[in-house]
UniProtKB/TrEMBL annotation:
Protein name, as recorded: alpha-L-fucosidase
Origin species: Piloderma croceum (strain F 1598)
Family, similarity comment: Belongs to the glycosyl hydrolase 29 family.
Keyword annotations: Glycosidase, Hydrolase, Signal
Lineage summary: Eukaryota, Fungi, Dikarya, Basidiomycota, Agaricomycotina
Superkingdom assignment: Eukaryota
Broad EC category: hydrolase
Length: 701
């Protein structure tokens, strides 16, 4: 496509495309990632490798950026394992953006890698890359390059988790030309590998006026209701490649509007930009009708008086999807809806039978009480010792069901608190790994709060009240795909979720009961999938927040979920722990050192170490209002949402220290929430400051 802004007073120094220049790094390749025809590689230091047949080769374009990949994989070194190497730019250039194809070689989450930039004036700058692991089990990252599996044990077997190479772009100071990039020192684990590096140059300082290019124009699967008709959201990113040194002459200081024009496409709500300073980027949402067929459109920019300033043509149309089918290629196009992107802040609720003992040793999760009690079942285990001393050896976990009363649970009071705290959505733990559900699970299981314990459907009470009293607050459901000790899960058991009855923690010759279990034939078909579908189709959950992944029927679920939501006029989303086709990533108790290109949501408890209530935690240890706001702003500035957890007690009360601190944060948000809600965070920003844009009339700062 043509990304150049033509017929305008702005300069277009790079012709018809968003520029990228390859930085050749093959001269410092020191690691072989790919195996081919018996030539076995050792990518991660443990005998694992990519299958060469799934990796693209040669000159390869992704997100308008050209990279140079090996022309032949599996024969020799094909990537750089970071070890303090220095990567020199091929030419003297002031840089607008750096672009990387990379992978971490750990097996979970992301590790931060610091790269040092050295400029020709000898100044330096540190950029932080949150390096995602090439494959994971619990979460599902989505890379620019994906392979269906990778080799393990020096090629003798396959690991069928989807495996990735990731893309990342970052801003660079454009005050002076960049000379080199120094890679991080070596690590013993979670090492950083680079496959390719490119850069986008800034315009020459002598260029007259702003140097604007359309960075991308992307037709999304998102929509907005405009006068009863669904209008498709087109995300348009505009870059001003004028260097920061040309701030006065290279900045756009007058408002302009962004339109999509084409033979079948009508803009019903343009994007608005008030200003765009030199070396910055801005992204706006343009709402359009008429994208029922494929083709190409142009991005048109008008000034505030309606005069056409620029036109960028050749951008491909992807029609708004009307029907979802259980296919990875279809479902993977789904993305977080606009309301979720704008909400920024939600409340997580971990509440269940584990709220009765409400205890964990330091740095442990109290909601894992049942598992911790049994692992290991001896006096070296703090949870085992605590249980023996507090409850005695004759009490098993299922005995806590009777004490999980919820007698003081008040849905209206909870929702008022969340609202006053400034949250725009909430996610209730409907079933944790103990298999105890807070809703009616019908004939799939009687291990729930309707058949046992309080004999109440807490999910129904909370959702019904929310729909009536807080319709603006979006509703979500956490759901654990596996269950620790469910005998029916045993055929699918893995790691800390083995399935099978638990041996009594104090008498290993006896099995503990799995109260409420009913006879089913298959865990996935008869329990997991039906329960997930009930959350989607009976309760209209807007967020399906799965946990643990593992064996699943997620493709079948997602298709029904999205079609049901569309029929009811809902826009819904699903996280990366459902085992397939995620909309957003979900690190725990973690933030990133750099802006993420993919939407993400960090979750953590108000407790410093636990989601479920832990009576061992002192009131002073809970996150106070200042900490909550600081974390929220940091996460939002890096393209994330913040899901802050409360752990009610067994009676259903949210304890006073949590309430106070939530309300303290809420008071700040009442006055300053405009700096948080409905904002957009971009990777490109002047000298690494994150830009914040208001929707639908964004501004750059």
């Amino acid at each position: 496509m043509s990304s150049c802004l033509q017929q305008h007073p702005f300069s277009a120094p790079f012709g018809d495309t968003y520029p990228s220049v390859v930085i050749h790094i093959d001269g410092i390749f020191n690691n072989q990632a790919a195996s081919k025809n018996g030539a076995i590689a050792d990518f991660d230091g443990h005998g694992s490798s990519f299958d060469a047949q799934y990796l693209p080769h040669g000159s390869w374009v992704y997100d308008e950026i050209t990279y140079e990949l090996p022309w032949s994989w599996g024969l020799r070194a094909d990537n750089v394992l970071a070890d303090n190497q220095i990567v020199y730019l091929p030419e003297l250039a002031t840089v607008h953006e750096l672009h990387f194809l990379y992978a971490g070689d750990g097996t979970y989450g992301a590790s931060e890698a610091k790269l040092e930039l050295t400029f020709v004036d000898h100044s330096t700058e540190i950029i932080r890359l949150s390096a995602k692991s090439w494959w994971t089990t619990i979460t599902l990252n989505v890379g620019a390059i994906q392979t269906p599996y990778h080799f393990e044990s020096h090629g003798s077997k396959k690991n069928w988790n989807v495996t990735h190479v990731f893309q990342w772009s970052t801003a660079v100071s454009s005050y002076t030309p960049l000379k080199s990039i120094t890679l991080p020192p070596p690590r013993s684990s979670d090492r950083l590998h680079l496959f390719a590096v490119s850069f986008t140059p800034s315009a020459a300082e002598q260029t007259v006026g702003p140097a604007l290019l359309v960075r991308r124009a992307r037709f999304t699967t998102k929509w907005e209701d405009v006068d009863g008709v669904r209008a498709q959201v087109v995300e348009v990113t505009i870059a001003n490649l004028a260097p920061a040194t040309a701030f006065s002459s290279g900045s756009v200081t007058s408002p302009f509007e962004v339109y999509i024009v084409g033979s079948d496409t009508i803009t019903v709500s343009p994007g608005y930009v008030n200003r765009l300073v030199a070396s910055d980027q801005v992204r706006v949402d343009v709402l359009v009708y008429g994208t029922s067929s494929n083709g190409n459109v142009a991005v048109q920019i008008n000034n505030s008086f309606g005069k056409i300033l620029t036109v960028s043509d050749g951008w491909p149309v992807t029609p708004l999807r009307e029907t979802w089918t259980p296919d990875t290629g279809v479902l993977s196009t789904h993305e977080t809806p606009t309301w979720w992107n704008q909400a920024k802040y939600g409340i997580f609720i971990h509440w269940g039978p584990y709220s009765v003992p409400a205890w964990a040793p330091p740095t442990s999760y109290a909601e894992w009480y049942d598992w911790s009690l049994h692992n290991p079942p001896d006096s070296g285990n703090p949870t085992w010792d605590h249980h023996l001393e507090t409850f005695g050896k004759d009490v098993v976990y299922d005995d806590f069901f009777a004490n999980f009363t919820g007698s003081k649970f008040n849905a209206s009071a909870w929702l008022d608190l969340f609202d006053e705290a400034g949250a725009k959505y909430f996610v209730l733990t409907t079933k944790h790994h103990d298999g105890f559900a807070l809703f009616d699970t019908g004939n799939t299981s009687h291990r729930n709060s309707v058949n046992l314990g309080p004999k109440r459907n807490f999910l129904a009470e909370l959702f019904t009240t929310a729909k009536k009293k807080k319709p603006q607050m979006h509703r979500g459901t956490y759901f654990s795909l596996p269950e620790w000790f469910n005998p029916d899960y045993a055929p699918y058991g893995q790691d800390s979720w083995p399935g099978g009855l638990a041996h009594n923690a104090f008498n290993s010759s006896e099995f503990e009961p799995y109260t409420g279990r009913v006879n089913i034939s298959n865990y996935l078909e008869d329990l997991q999938l039906p329960q997930m579908l009930d959350l989607a189709e009976l309760y209209d959950t807007e967020i399906m927040w799965c946990d643990i992944s593992g064996p699943n029927k997620t493709l079948e679920f997602a298709a029904r979920y999205y079609n049901h939501a569309a029929a009811k006029g809902l826009q819904v989303t699903m996280n990366d722990r459902c085992g397939a086709v995620p909309d957003f990533n979900t690190p725990e108790y973690a933030t990133f050192g750099a802006t993420q290109s993919r939407k993400w949501e960090t979750s953590e408890g108000m407790d410093p170490n636990s989601y479920g209530l832990n009576s061992a935690t002192k009131p002073s240890q809970y996150k106070n209002g200042t900490t909550i706001i600081q974390t929220l702003v940091d996460v939002v500035s890096k393209n994330g949402n913040y899901l802050l957890n409360v752990g009610p007690n067994a009676e259903g009360e949210i304890i006073e220290p949590m309430v106070k601190n939530l309300l303290d944060a809420g008071r700040w948000l009442k006055y300053s929430g405009d700096c948080v809600y409905e904002t957009v965070s971009l990777q490109k920003c002047t000298h690494h400051f994150n830009i914040v844009l208001r929707y639908p009339r964004p501004y750059t700062v």
